[in-house]
Structures are given as structure tokens and as C-alpha cells.
Design a protein that fits this description.
Helix content: 25-40%
Oligomer: single chain
Largest sheet: 7 strands, mixed
Strand content: 25-35%
Structural class: alpha+beta
Shape: rod-shaped
Order of helices and strands: HHEEEEEEEEEHEHEHEEH
Number of helices: 6
Strand order of the largest sheet: 8-7-11-10-9-12-13
CATH superfamily of one domain: Glutaredoxin
Amino acid sequence: MPETSNIKTDDFQHTERSAAKSEKIVKNVPKRGRKTPTKKQTSITSGRLQAMLAAAIILCLGLIVSIIFILARDTTPPIIQKVSISDITEAGTTINWQTDEPATSQVTIRDSEWQTDDLSSSQGPIWAEVPTSTEPDETLVTNHYATLIGLKPNTRYQLVLISKDKGGNEARLEIELTTPTPTPASPPVVSVGAEVGKLAPDFTLTTLKGEQISLSQLRGKIIMVNFWQSSCSNCRDEMVYLQATYDSWSRDKLEVLAVSVGEKAAFVQSFIETQGFTLPVLLDPDQAVSGTYQISRFPTTFFINADGIIKEIKRGTFTTQSEIDNILKSL
């Protein structure tokens, strides 16, 4: 019995030593598929994470700055105000306006061309660009002006005022302008006198038929005023050409007045009827009119245009009708 007990005890101890040895061997065998991370690999991974974090921070900062810039940027256009138009003529004008902040200046111009018959009148005018326009002034100011030239008289225009601030924000304001109709030029003031270029002195004389004729009532026609005397042979010879001229011209264009100076009506009447003349003969018995016209010799003929201006004076006798016609055609 004692021997059996010792054998069992030895077997048990041997078994324990074998199990412990096996466990030690198992612990020393590395597991397949796993690598123990090295110190170098750990350092590289940490650097990448830091770089990515820095890039993300920079990106966020840039985004924040962009948002702040967009929010802070002025997107409001300037306000155009206090518009005035001055010095309006049929060919140009001056425009003044103000803006609530410094801005550029420019005016574009459109001419009104009314629609054709196949368009409805309710559509209003059709605006078309015309060459006349101002060049943009890039100076930033608050008081603006532009002078327009080359416009057409009695024409409707659409003017567009344009101003841009330093941020490029643009403001536009449309206004309309109608140029006036040109005023007819007033005739120059001409002094009265019996000289070429002056206004012929007015007079009123009585004809052989008892009618009164005033020089001023014949305004609008060419007038020949011939001062003569029946005792003057050259005057009698010239009377033929005066009559021929009177007959060949329309009364709407020409009037011929033969003024007898210092003679009695009966004597003049006898001569005119004998010769068969029909042109108007006026009597200046007291030589008042001939004195005003400074008549120094007979015959003397004044050529007066439709405006009453003396254009030519002929002192002496006409020898042909063509001489008279040439002067009349030049007036």
C-alpha cells in the first residue's frame, strides 16, 4: 500500500510539470496575421492627423473670411437725385444731377422714332440709339453734369443718367427732353434812307385816277419807283420800256410807280393818254417825296425788294427793256 501511494504522487507531479511546460510554449508562440506596431509608424500617423487638422482649420478660416467679406461688401447702388436741365436750345442742353455717394458720370441719348402704321399707337414711341452721347467720366464725384450737343430741333429725346460707385454698383435714371422749335431769326434793324441797303422811305401819293397809293402797302412785291418829268426827253423815251416791263410782269411780283415831279395833273394826264400808257402814274406836285429821295436828275429809278430795302438806284436813262429785266431778276 505504501508503494502504490508513492507512485501516484510521482505521476501527478510529472503531469503538472508537463502542463506548465506546455503552457509556457503556447505563450511563446506569436499569433499569425498581427504585427506589433512600431514606434516609427505611430509617429507618422500622428503627423498626418496634425496636418489634416491644420488644413481643416485654414479652410474654415478662409470660409469665415469670405463670408465676412461678402456680408461687408456694399451692393447698394448710388441714388441719383436733384436732376436739373438748363440752357435748353434746339441743338443742345446741359444736365446736372447729384448722387448720395461718389460715383462716375455718363449720359446716353435715345431719339424718339414713332411707330409705323402697322403698330398699335398704344405701344408708344420706339426709342432708337443715336450717335450723340457723352463719354463715361470715371472720376468719382457727387455733383455731376453733362453738356449735350448735336441734337435736332423739335425732337423728343430719352436721356439715361448713369452713375457707378467704387464698388461697381450702377444706378440709372431715365428722363425725357423735347428740344424747342427754332425761332425764326429776326430781320436786322435797317435804318431808313434813300440809299442802297437802307429801308426805302414810305410815302403816300395820289394817282392820275384819284387813288392814293402808299409804298408800304405794296410790301411783299418788288417795286420800281421812277421819278420823271414830261419835259424831260430822256424820261419820255424811257417810259416805253417802263410800260413794257409793267405789262410783262405779274402784279403779284412787281409794281411799277411812275412819279411825276413838280408838274400839274392836267399836263401829265394829256401826255399819258396821248402815248397810251397804262402804268400807275403818281403826282408829286410839291416835290416833297422827290426831296426825301434826294432826286438830283431825271430820270432816276429805285429798285426796292420785297422787304422794302433799296437794292439798286439807276440815275439816268434805260435804253432797253432787258436792262430793267436784268436788274429785276437779280433782286
